Automatic annotation (TrEMBL):
The keyword Zinc does not apply. Keywords: Hydrolase. One of its GO terms (molecular function) is hydrolase activity. Residues 14-240 form the AB hydrolase-1 domain. InterPro entries: AB_hydrolase_1, AB_hydrolase_fold, AB_hydrolase_sf, Epox_hydrolase-like. This is 3-oxoadipate enol-lactonase. The keyword Hydrolase applies. It holds the Pfam family Abhydrolase_6. GO terms for cellular component: membrane.
Length: 252
């Protein structure tokens, strides 16, 4: 299957991979700015998010992204990925290095990372709420955890809507369908990489950004003192400036 997606604008292609708290609608504040700046945007919903249904057979998010690019005739693109989507972005950049011109990882996850106390506590509490059938409570927990102090009430409501929809789709799917785990080495990433972390995020994601900045050959880390886990939604104008500057600096 081809995952749900949309395309806007013309010019060099920028692929936008969403957080697993959201879906492709999280990029609504970025698409007009990128199009106005002369870029073609491709944004997609991973399986079980937004308009992409749950899989009915083993699948790979990274392969889905590459298949989508193939279907659109995109040979090379900049990848911008957030949180859980960041791990997918890493896999694409490591396994298909010729396809990725540049990589921007925001509050990214990392395979093999040992969760800290706060992240473990969050995961345990989310599991408890979902096992009790309290989808509303699990949704509220995610909104409170993943948005920083500058997120508006409207943004919090939008994230809650996306997260609740994802829970409902995933809980209705077949829990036994597996994601195909393909081993890859982040050291194989050769694309210029910008790592972004937020001071108001859980410590894990700042630690991951620092680690990856040391492991990747062409990486730099930009910590944002105002940001939580989802800076593109919390302060879209500031984030858009950072993103477009990265693209125009010749990295993307």
């Amino acid at each position: 299957m081809t995952i749900a997606h949309d395309v806007a604008g013309s010019g060099p292609t920028v692929v936008l991979l969403h957080s697993t708290v959201c879906d492709r609608r999280m990029w609504d504040p970025q698409v007009p700015a990128l199009v106005d700046a002369g870029y073609r945007t491709v944004r997609a919903d991973f399986r079980g998010f937004g308009e992409s249904p749950m899989p009915d057979r083993p699948y790979s998010d990274a392969q889905d992204v590459v298949d989508l690019l193939d279907s659109l005739g995109v040979e090379r693109a900049t990848v911008v990925a957030v949180s859980g989507g960041g791990r997918v972005g890493q896999e694409v950049a490591a396994r298909w290095p010729a396809r990725v011109a540049a990589l921007m990882l925001v509050s990214t996850a990392l395979g093999g990372h040992e969760p800290g106390a706060e992240l473990r506590a969050f995961g345990e509490r989310e599991d408890e709420l979902l096992e009790a059938g309290d989808v509303a409570g699990a949704t509220a927990l995610n909104v409170a955890t993943w948005l920083g102090p500058y997120a508006s009430d409207e943004t919090r409501a939008r994230v809650g809507q996306m997260q609740r929809h994802a829970f409902e789709v995933q809980l209705a799917g077949d829990p036994d369908v597996e994601s195909l785990g393909v081993e890859f080495d982040v050291s194989d990433i050769v694309a210029p990489t910008l790592l972004v972390s937020g001071a108001h995020d859980l410590p894990d994601f700042r630690e991951i950004a620092v680690e990856l900045a040391g492991r990747l050959p062409h990486a730099r880390h930009v910590p944002l003192d105002w940001a939580g886990h989802l800076p593109s939604l919390e302060r879209p104008d500031a984030f858009n400036t950072l993103l477009i500057d990265f693209l125009r600096d010749g990295d993307g």
